Fold this protein.
Amino acid sequence: MRSTHLPTIAKVRFLVGALGERLEWWSTRFTLPESKRSLEIVFPRTAARAALESVTEAARRTHDDSLDPFSFHLFRLPIHLEDRLAGHLAQPELPLSWPPATKEAIVTELERVAGASGPVVEQGPRRLGQPDKLNQAAAFKDVAAAYLTAARGGFRVTPYFKHEA
């Protein structure tokens, strides 16, 4: 995977994390405007990264509860991708943008990432392909589209990648 996809992964993870908070898919508040102010006191230079890491952990637990341990998803990628993403996020000059405050604005941002098409998904866990697909930027557009469909439809979805049995 080229490093040019790492910003897309981080952006989708942060946006979906924030969307999940607004829709109460997980019961955290790390990406809300009032949390931003609090985190900036404790982490003046890395508040956005702290929020991203915190909401990622909450979303990871929620996703892991509905999937088997051999699946990968937006919040638990194969170790080589997680390592590269962590290295990318550790760059001090990284421009990590805080997610928008409202659900509607988050949806608009996700629409920009997802583009015009995406997978058809329904409620619950939905397999989007093999784990090697995660090496392509298109996988994260599909993930963004799946969460958009769920947000618009008023249900929860857990898009994942797994080797066929």
About this structure: Residues 3-161 form one domain. The first helix runs from residue 6 to 22.
